Amino acid sequence: MMRDVVSRSGTPLPIDLSTVQHPFEMSTATGAVPAESSLARRSGKFLTFFLAGEEYGLEILKVHEILGMLPITRIPRAPDFILGVINLRGKVIPIMDLRTRFLMPPSETAEPCIIVTQIQRVQIGIVVDQVSEVCNIAAGEVEDTPNFGADVHTEFLLGLAKQGGRVKLLLDIDRILDMKELASASEAAA
Amino acid sequence: MTSAEQSLPDLLRGVRAELDAATPADTATLARPRAKLAWIASMLPTQRGEARRLLDLAAEAASAIGTTLEGEQEHQRCLNAVRAAVGAAIEHLAAPEDLGGELLLIQAGQQLLRALGRDHQEWMRGMSRGNVTPHDTASEIIEGQPVPLLTLDDAAALLLMVEPSERAEMERIRHALEALTEDEREVPLVRTLAGDAVASIRRVLDDVSAAEDLVTDLAEVAQFVNLAVRARDDAAEWMSAGPQLAIPIGVVEGGSVPAPRAPATAHHGVADALPEGDRELIADFVVECGEYLESAEAALLKLEANPTDIEAINTVFRAFHTVKGTSGFLGLDVITTFAHEAESLFSRVRDGELPFAGRIPDLALRAADVVKALVETVDKALHGTPMTRPGTYDTVLEELARVAAGDMSTGAEAADGIAATPTAEAEEGPARPRLVQAPEPWRGEERRDQNSDSSIRVRTDRLDRLIDMVSELVIAHTMIAQDESVPQVGHHGLGRKVSHAGKIVRELHDLSLSMRMVPLKPTFQKMTRLVRDVAHNVGKEVEFITEGDETEIDRNMVDALSDPLVHMVRNAVDHGIETPDERIAAGKPRHGSVRLSAKHSGGSVLVELRDDGRGLDKDRIVVKAIEKGLIESAAKLADAEIFNLIFAPGFSTATHVTALSGRGVGMDVVRRNIESLRGLVTISSVPGEGTLFTLRLPLTLAVTDGMLVQVGPERYVIPTTCIHMSFRPERSALSTIAGRGEMVRLRDEVMPMFRLHKLFSVVGAQEDPCAALVVVVSIGSQRVALLVDALLGQQQVVAKSLGEGIGKIEGVSGGAILGDGRVGLILDVAELLVMLRRREAGPDQLRSVA
Predict the structure, then answer these.
(1) Phi, psi torsion values for A57, nearest 5 degrees
(2) Which CATH superfamily is B703-847 part of?
């Protein structure tokens, strides 16, 4: 995944591609225990969606809107999980493919849609297979993510919610989009 | 209803706007609305007990965010409840008798309680109590102490409405203000400002004769009162914000902020630290000061031509006065001290005690420069750079003080100007017995233009968003207009309606784009000053004429245009215009003339700089160019081509300055600047008669003229200014180097050819160059050929960033929304060339990507 991208001005890019790693594949030793702050975020309303048969939850407050698939303009020389950009009512926003981000095979049958999220000031759309529902998740229904050791890294989960006999993976979207943290995490590992 | 109560909904609306901008993560953004909420609640009369209770609760909730409440979600919920509560209070106060408004109050109250984690029933239980006895904390303030006749806010509101003839009302205001100056509970600054307001209002009350002055005096009272309200609110905010913000109170209460009329010399030598305080206010101050100083400078230059222009003297005086007042209010002592001296000097000039002559004009301009430099350092200090004083601060300050004190040496020098002043007074005397004694509050440049030329400040990001939305509307409308069902037979009327809507949309679009336009006047004014200074320095006499300074241009371009203009104007005066003796010897008038003009011409702006100096020396340019190896001989060159040589980089070095009458100084920079604005610069010159520089600039940078090209399934936009030409190559025109580097021949020129589809890894593009198209792009003298599938047509596009999440993509300057609503990428040709050069140097670097 290492690529040669150089910023003209010499300042680090918002996405430093040389440090981007797969979320579940990071060889860091920082463990999978969610931080104190993320514990508080594990209950409340979540938007759930499907990705390769798994159900994920995304805090509703981080969701700006849900769009059907729109024509995406590919951006040359961008990381592969950045599908390109779309025109969101006059604003150009980047689109990330969550399947590619999680190293899942590309979807074939599903009707994908775009969830527009806003982290701090950065708006970014993520492509998922299918949006499911908005559900209330109580703190009691959430468990810490079990530790799978080095094979599966769970830093990008707030926890697991068990509801109606199903397991919902609560996504920490900030960690997926926060490339700076990725950079420092991989530095720590190096 | 008291007038204060009437203004409360408006205040609340302000609070709501602040709340909308606040984020739960940043509790500092909440401090101000919270303080205001508590204060507004305390202002509400007893019969509005419910609203008061709600606002108190809202203030409590606002302070709970980030303190007692835990978790982002809770914070957000709480903030939403506070917003809802403010909204409900606005509704309710606007129509107190409306049942719906009351219901809203109850809902909002319950929502707040829930957000605070309390029992929402509490609201209903408290309701009856709230109606009978006013709410606890707030009522204590009102009932525990004698209520003044009018509060400060009442006074502020009344002042907006009162007519100078309503003496009873004015007396009431004066009374209230006087009470305020005595009020121990108020912050010192508020009391001082109230004192100033009283002084002004007394003048209004005592002096009923000159009606036109009354209005301005009254406006001044209002200004003082408004400043006091601001000071009070800020103090309240600091107090409520708790210990972490305690320092600013010290600044205010410690009295280090001089009142606008306090003798400022006492503060000389205070450390040049940026005072704590409202950064927003300081930022506003910086912007305002810029405007005052600009006008002051213009007025000073006018005064040089006509030293008795009372209006100009007043303008300068007012500018210094306002700068002094506001800087004093903000605790910027360094500026206050200086502006005070400058103001003192001008008050003597205004009163006819000193003539505007001798050293004064020069000194005044230098003083304006120092204030400008000071304001600049304040601006920088806002961004973290420590404040510094300009080097001339002390000397100019001393000189100001000396001249203002009536130093004899100046008096003697200025003797020639004295005669003029009494004449001016004689002219003005009978009509206006006194010159404006009170400083008039600032009212823009020309008071008579107030109605026709009024304006408001709008944040640029908001404006940009509006323009975005309108562009979207244009696209959306086009999509409707092109919909198949529109021209159908059954919908005869629809087509007409759609095209009518289209007209409106287009007009809206033009209008929205024009909102970013500003006149060139300030830029031209800067040049006036520059010409004066340069001419003065090199001992030349130059008449500077500007024309068409009302021509408008995109705001973003104004700054970028300024630099090259400075170069060119300086050159024109320094080297173009001859000395007076030379001119007379050449049979020309003693005064040289430099004319700067601007006008719109065919969708672009034409800026011309014409001087009647000695003109460019063609032969010398040719000699130098041959020396430099730029050309071999001038035999084939037209005049324009020869003149263009002075734009060559490195053409002008120090040794050339004299030989070439210096016309080359920085000219390559000028051309580069103009080209970066996508403009064009041309020269024409006649020896002995002068030189004409013509700049042709686009109206705006926001809109790019682009060529849409097809590459496989993708489309890209190439800026038209970079495109030299395009053609379909013959097979014989193609060649390769080492089987890899492709070249194409265009007439006699061979240039490298790059396949855009390879560069951007596009799949499915035309691989055969003879079936595709070559676009020759150039930056400066560099030319390369890009291989694309086809040209799709020329189009004006609005360049946009690709979004913060994605960073910079090499070779792409941004995205543009195309006619069908999709995003097309705009090529950054300059960057592309750099990229290609690197690729030539080390092809392997890129192969891993491509």
Answers:
(1) -120, 140
(2) SH3 Domains (2.30.30.40)
Say whether residue A87 is in contact with chain B using an 8 A CB cutoff: yes
Share of chain B above pLDDT 70, in %: 75
Closest chain B residue to A44 measured between Cα atoms? B73
Instruction: Tell me the residue range of the domain where A166 lies.
Output: 17-189
Closest to A125 (Cα-Cα) out of A72, A175, A169, A75: A72
How many domains is chain A built from?
Answer: 1
Chain B residues bordering chain A (beta-carbon distance below 8 Å): 70-74, 76, 468-469, 471-472, 714, 759-762, 800-812, 814-815, 817, 821-825, 831, 845-846, 848-849
Residue B397 near residue B338 (C-beta atoms within 8 A) = yes
- pLDDT number for residue B841: 57
Indicate the pLDDT class of residue B825, thresholds 50, 70 and 90: very high
Nearest to A71 among B469, B806, B822 (CB): B822
Alpha-carbon distance of B561 to B552, in angstroms, equals: 13
Using an 8 Å Cβ cutoff, are B776 and B787 in contact? Answer: no
Q: Supply the ipTM of this predicted assembly.
A: 0.71
Per residue in B17-27, pLDDT tens? 888 877 777 77
Q: What does CATH list as the number for B259-415?
A: 1.20.120.160
Which of chain B's residues have a Cβ under 8 Å away from the Cβ of A44?
73
Residue A96 to chain B, least CA–CA distance (Å): 10
Sequence-separated (6 or more) residues with CB below 8 Å from residue B543: B591, B592, B593, B594
CATH 1.20.120.140 correct for B518-698: no
E strands, B414-560, in order: 517-519, 542-547, 552-554
Distance of alpha carbon B292 from alpha carbon B368, whole angstroms: 10
Which residues of chain B are within 8 Å of residue A40 when distances are taken between CB atoms?
70-74
Q: Give strand pairing partners of B696.
A: B606, B680
* Nearest chain B Cα distance for residue A92, angstroms: 6
Give me the CATH number covering residue A26: 2.40.50.180
φ, ψ of residue B427 to 5 degrees: the values are: -65, -45
Among candidates B71, B807, B823 on the partner chain, residue whose Cβ is nearest the Cβ of A85: B823
Which has more pLDDT, B262 or B41? B41
Q: Is residue A34 part of a domain?
A: yes
Which of A73, A84, A89 has the CB atom closest to B472's CB atom? A89
Give the other-Cβ count within 10 Å of B241's Cβ.
20
Q: How far does the CA of residue A147 sit from the closest CA of chain B (Å)?
A: 25
Give phi and psi for B795, each to the nearest 5: -155, 145
Per-residue pLDDT tens digits for B399-413: 877 777 765 444 444
- Provide the shortest C-alpha distance from residue A11 to chain B (in Å): 10
Distance CA B1, CA B313 (A): 45
User: Domain segments of chain B: what residues?
Assistant: 3-144, 149-255, 259-415, 460-516, 518-698, 703-847
Strands A130-137 and A44-51: antiparallel
Contacts of A7 in chain B (CB under 8 A): 807-808
Token digits of residue B826 = 């705009």
The Cα B386–Cα B333 span in angstroms is: 15
| CB atoms inside a 10 Å sphere around CB A174 | 17
Please state, as a whole number, how many other Cβ atoms lie within 10 Å of the Cβ of residue B760. Answer: 23
Q: In residues, how long is chain A? A: 190
Assess whether the region B259-415 and the region B703-847 belong to the same CATH fold.
no
Does A13 contact B807 at a Cβ distance shorter than 8 Å? yes
Q: What is the secondary structure of B665-706 as a DSSP string? A: TTHHHHHHHHHHTT-EEEEEEETTTEEEEEEEEES-SSEEEE
